[in-house]
Batch of 2 targets.
Target 1
Amino acid sequence: MPKFGVTIYSISRLIINGKMTPEEGVEWLCSQGAEAVEIVPFGIDMLADRTLANKLKYTAAKHGVPIASYSLNANFVMLTEDELKAEISRVKSHIDEAVKLGATDFRCDCANFRRPIELNTIETFIEELPVIVYAYEQLCEYGKARGIRILIENHGFHANGADRVRLILKNVASDNFGHQLDVGNYICVDDVPESSVRKMLPFASTIHMKDFYVRPTHMDPGDATQFDCSGSWFRSAGGRYLRGSILGQGDLPIREIISDIKASGFDGNIFVEYEGMEDCLYATKVSLDNLKRFYTEA
């Protein structure tokens, strides 16, 4: 039976704006029924305060809830040799903090989220695959010595899509490497989410549950940006308009996806990741309740 958790990213706007401390954020997630918590350093500077990890772990432990995962943005491509070395070193520092938290999984990206579209081609991906593999192998070795697994998420517009993620998983020579499967992010590169989830479930170590409103390329809703989330809407690689929604209220086939997850026997952590426009406390609570209800009804 999986644990139904929440990534603190879902309420990060309150932490970034100073309306909640990180400890208060963890406390709130646990009080709303999260069975596991993921830490994401948006508005949370884990490296500036090396005592913060113990504080967050203690806050969650009061509720009997583990801080099970840590998620970090990182980039290993289009760097000089010295820049790559520095980036790997930076990520290792965050792995150390994740270990303090008691996390069992550490997800990090490998390619800049806001790369120009012309650099996200399959040709560029194949050229960059060796350095991506090298970086993950370094991190997997570091994590294994500390008892924490390294994960790649289908995230952004370059290292995304079932086929590209599977190539990375296949080429990284480590038994300490896994996949954080985000059920919504596939649509950012115009994969069919339910098909990609079925393809990638055998590789999944953890799961992000996310929903989107989707509009076709000819239905511009206004306030849309390309390749970032600075507007209300952003655009997929193929130009469709996307906006985060409460889980189960958007346009993705969330019930079908949850049925597939349940049928697969997946028993890891499933984290709600909300990133829409509604009040984030309300939206995160409804999303978590819907996740639990949909799974029961599947």
Target 2
Amino acid sequence: MLEADVLKYPARLLTGAQRAQYFNDGALVVEGAVGDDWLSRLREAAAELAERSRPVAVSDATFILEDGHSAESPRLKRVASPVDNHEAFLDFACGSPAVEAAADLVGPHVKYHHSKLNYKWAHGGSRFDWHQDIQAWPHTDFSPVTVGVYLEDCGPEQGPLMAVRGSHRGPLHSMYDAQGRWVLRIPEHEIDTARVTALTGGAGSLVLLNCCTIHGSAPNRSDRSRPFLLIVYSSADSYPYTANPIPSPLSGRVVRGEPARWASVDPRGCEVPPDWSAGYSGPWAHQAQSRREAGGQAGPVS
């Protein structure tokens, strides 16, 4: 569903000002949107998945390991598709404030696409370079929104998500490097640093991110991890036209409203990613190699 059509429906969870800020900036933090009952369930589930990772020695389709991970001291970058690995995440993705927030931004008929749980582990949780998301999972329109939930308080020292305000209105950058390798990375010199904002928030904050907004995050050098649940939704009439990098039996399910009979099509094109059918473990290694070759460019996500 295109933005003009979405705005014909009244907002339910967001205020009018919050909704306007999202469409203007391409990013929004909503403090205190997720209550203590949900937070308790999600925290327990995140801790349980970390425990399950102890015997994992090499990153696999579910657990992406952080440097220094061991059975004695687990350290995770990511759990892929947490909805398929714990009932609490499945319940949250299908019926929670996350779904209602998505409906205010993509229209009343909401479809699930994929999810991940990024831990940003204490004392060195990895950076994530500047990038845009939609090139990794292009759709027939640009309605997809990522709904993030901070499971713990997230301040500037923990490597919060950072976004370039208004960049969703600008061009789509290539996510390939000069050698044609998929790196999901925008070089630092292409970023308008004057428009960068840190999306910090307390536990239970929703972070809403447009699929075209440039964003990234710094390493976590604090003594507190930053578990961050990320769920991607689209309007029900928006359809992916490449394989899902994080597939799930839930992908494509309408979690609010009704299925679409017609597709929403934005006339703007979108770069196509590699074939994900063989699996996808994330771009961290590719980004690191690209930084080394570029001379280790520093900046807000360094």
